[in-house]
User: Fold this.
Amino acid sequence: MAINAVARDTVFALRRQIAKIEGTLPERLEVPVGFDADRMLVRRSGMAESHGLLATGANRFDAALNGGLPKAALTEFHGVETRDAGTVAGFALALAGLLLKPTETPAPILWVGTTEIFREAGFPYARGLEANFGIAPENLLYAEAPKITDALWIAEEAAGLSALSAVVLELRGNPDRLDLTATRRLHRRALAAERPVFLLRQAAFAEPTAAPVRLVVAPAPATLRKTMAGPLDGTIGCPGIAVTIGKSRAAQPGQFTLEWNPDERTFLDRTHAGATHQRPWNTQNRAKNPVAVVPLSSGGTDPAAAARPVLAFPSRQPLPAGDQPSRPQRPAYRRA
Assistant:
């Protein structure tokens, strides 16, 4: 009992110190009856919760965040490596699609980034926005800034506009300009405007910021495609995303694997998405499905019936008499 009390006081003191460093508001810590240091629950009563939460649809993940991500706040999304930029951007686009889903005439989303990050990671594909995330191409605006200071100024000014649904700021690394003061200004603008600001940090490490929630996003292996008869071997189903709660004022750190369903436009927990039925693509499964499963053609014939082995080189057979060359041929680099 004494050890649990000491651990509780130590953890609470550390959280208060972190909150003081990051410039957060004072926290109200509720200790439940029968407190256990390994299952501590920290709750905070503040402005962000009063504006509502954005539920992802993944029950375990939402429960860990006490309902979802705050709609009126600055939220960080970290990608450890540059090659994870597509997954981080896709996760932010999926959340933006969830934000616009219940709205009939949604306001546009502003995506702010530097020239460096757009050249490195590219722009979102316009035709895939509506099909995969439910975002019309005209509802996603881009602002390319040559310097980080310009990108921060654009994002801060745009966060206070009522004509936007959300603001996405994508930066690379850990620039000096993106300090605690800059993130505190973005967070206050998001609170005042009652809309989210997503901070995408590609190839960056965690540092003190004013964001209430920090998520570390990385790609995860996709599961098999699900059919009425069960998982289909040798196919690729919904994309998987590994999400780690790096910081949260209302939840403990945790790791989750989510799946994005582009048809239903919602997230699913990997444990609830049938991942336990996934089987590796080994030689037995390859023998069971020797050819790729493709739909029927417009004529209604099965393309697999006409499939033939494809050889890298033709077999050495003598040419017919009519196909013989008219004169001896020599390599081009040899003279006659």
Q: What stands out?
A: The first strand starts at residue 53 and ends at 54.
